[in-house]
Amino acid sequence: MDYEIVIGLEVHSELKTKSKIFCGCSTQFGSDQNTNVCPVCLGLPGVLPVINEKVIEFAIRAGLALNCEILPFSKFDRKNYYYPDLPKNFQTSQYDLPIAVNGYLDIEVEGQTKRIGITRVHMEEDAGKLVHSGTINNSDYALVDYNRTGVPLIEIVSEPDIRTPEEAKAYLEKLKAILQYIDVSDCKMEEGSLRCDANISLRPCGTEPFGTKAEIKNLNSFRSVQRGLEYEAARQEQVLEEGGRVIQETRSWDEAKGITLSMRSKEQAHDYRYFPEPDLVPIIVDPAKVEEIRQSLPELPDARQKRLMNDYGLSSYDASVITASKAMADYFDETVACQADAKSVANWLMGEVSKHLNTAGLDIEACPVTPAKLAGMIALIDKGTISGKIAKTVFEDMWSSGKDADTVVKEKGLVQISDASAIVAIVDSVIVANPQSVADFKAGKEKAIGFLVGQIMKQTKGRANPEMVNKLLRERL
């Protein structure tokens, strides 16, 4: 039987506030364990929470960027469950009246645009962090760090509109970009500031009712999300094909083994015994404040992609790659503002710049070649001072030394040879030294000229003007 995959994603994003959601403790990552805590976030008796106004502003900002309706009246609720990293034995979250509802996000997969509905965006506090002696499924003990307890989160819940693991990955990449563009979260998955739980079920193709879903946790990268969903879809299909039934449960993704493992039965909403948080007043949002936040939103990825295509003639693919990261898009705009050709900038960003960043494990914010320096190097190529091939050598030196292109070219003697008389002499010597290749070319073997060009470039150490070399070589032949 053919099955259709149905996927819904729940994304938790830590907000970039300096203090926690209900107290004044720092949200700084990497502090010594259990140092960013106080009686409020530890849930000690007799304390009262106070909402951090910046959290509400950031949540509205995210809701608007995700095309949501901002509810004028929302409230906090207590989500009751017991777990060692939850000192109050309940999580302060939002249930039936969240801050934002009914949004959407457009993704592109294999050239096709698809709209993914967003059910809700709500605010809540984060739990602490359990540090296991082994894996989550096999440990002798676990330690608890409460520094993360009370760090503000928004949870973004999608509609079950996603049909493939590839779509899930594209959705997450787009969502991450939007949150970074509006500057509400740094989205560092390695630090836990962007986390994803995936709900997946199968149903026979052509049918309407959803199948029984499993929730996958411990997905700590976009690659893990895609791999975890691929595995779970295959597992559920095997269960159904063998006549079994899928159990509604929470499963953990084991990255090393590439499999999901059963953790516990999946809770329903009533299991959490939600009720309104009695220690916090409801949130009433002024429509004028919502409009003020809307007007303050920056140019978002889709709009920026269209601008790069319309203003600079970039292809849809090139523009989407550059705008997928706000930092990369900012670098592009700054380089073009230095009078560099936009298409050349795009090629260098997606080529040598990305290659060096990946090798060094750096984000583009830490790139040692500044936009102005990259623009200066591209100007030398455009003027014919250096060739594209030499430019790669120049860029390598700029990366390691921090020098600008002019300095590197002068120090290394890399100025391109464009003197026809100097090139002709080398062309003639190569023709004399390679009679067989000359004969092959004259016999109609066009590839032979490539070998001769290579010999000329070798003698000039790559400094000869390639166009001039080809022109003069053909003339002499």
TrEMBL record:
<dbReference type="InterPro" id="IPR018027">
    <property type="entry name" value="Asn/Gln_amidotransferase"/>
</dbReference>
<dbReference type="GO" id="GO:0050567">
    <property type="term" value="F:glutaminyl-tRNA synthase (glutamine-hydrolyzing) activity"/>
</dbReference>
<dbReference type="Pfam" id="PF02934">
    <property type="entry name" value="GatB_N"/>
</dbReference>
<comment type="function">
    <text>Allows the formation of correctly charged Asn-tRNA(Asn) or Gln-tRNA(Gln) through the transamidation of misacylated Asp-tRNA(Asn) or Glu-tRNA(Gln) in organisms which lack either or both of asparaginyl-tRNA or glutaminyl-tRNA synthetases. The reaction takes place in the presence of glutamine and ATP through an activated phospho-Asp-tRNA(Asn) or phospho-Glu-tRNA(Gln).</text>
</comment>
<dbReference type="GO" id="GO:0070681">
    <property type="term" value="P:glutaminyl-tRNAGln biosynthesis via transamidation"/>
</dbReference>
<dbReference type="GO" id="GO:0006412">
    <property type="term" value="P:translation"/>
</dbReference>
<dbReference type="InterPro" id="IPR017959">
    <property type="entry name" value="Asn/Gln-tRNA_amidoTrfase_suB/E"/>
</dbReference>
<dbReference type="InterPro" id="IPR003789">
    <property type="entry name" value="Asn/Gln_tRNA_amidoTrase-B-like"/>
</dbReference>
<dbReference type="InterPro" id="IPR042114">
    <property type="entry name" value="GatB_C_1"/>
</dbReference>
<keyword id="KW-0547">Nucleotide-binding</keyword>
<comment type="similarity">
    <text>Belongs to the GatB/GatE family. GatB subfamily.</text>
</comment>
<feature type="domain" description="Asn/Gln amidotransferase">
    <location>
        <begin position="330"/>
        <end position="477"/>
    </location>
</feature>
<keyword id="KW-0648">Protein biosynthesis</keyword>
<dbReference type="Pfam" id="PF02637">
    <property type="entry name" value="GatB_Yqey"/>
</dbReference>
<keyword id="KW-0067">ATP-binding</keyword>
<protein>
    <recommendedName>
        <fullName>Aspartyl/glutamyl-tRNA(Asn/Gln) amidotransferase subunit B</fullName>
        <ecNumber>6.3.5.-</ecNumber>
    </recommendedName>
</protein>
<dbReference type="InterPro" id="IPR017958">
    <property type="entry name" value="Gln-tRNA_amidoTrfase_suB_CS"/>
</dbReference>
<dbReference type="InterPro" id="IPR004413">
    <property type="entry name" value="GatB"/>
</dbReference>
<dbReference type="GO" id="GO:0005524">
    <property type="term" value="F:ATP binding"/>
</dbReference>
<dbReference type="GO" id="GO:0016740">
    <property type="term" value="F:transferase activity"/>
</dbReference>
<comment type="subunit">
    <text>Heterotrimer of A, B and C subunits.</text>
</comment>
<keyword id="KW-0436">Ligase</keyword>
<dbReference type="InterPro" id="IPR006075">
    <property type="entry name" value="Asn/Gln-tRNA_Trfase_suB/E_cat"/>
</dbReference>
<dbReference type="GO" id="GO:0050566">
    <property type="term" value="F:asparaginyl-tRNA synthase (glutamine-hydrolyzing) activity"/>
</dbReference>
<dbReference type="InterPro" id="IPR014746">
    <property type="entry name" value="Gln_synth/guanido_kin_cat_dom"/>
</dbReference>
<keyword id="KW-0808">Transferase</keyword>
<dbReference type="InterPro" id="IPR023168">
    <property type="entry name" value="GatB_Yqey_C_2"/>
</dbReference>
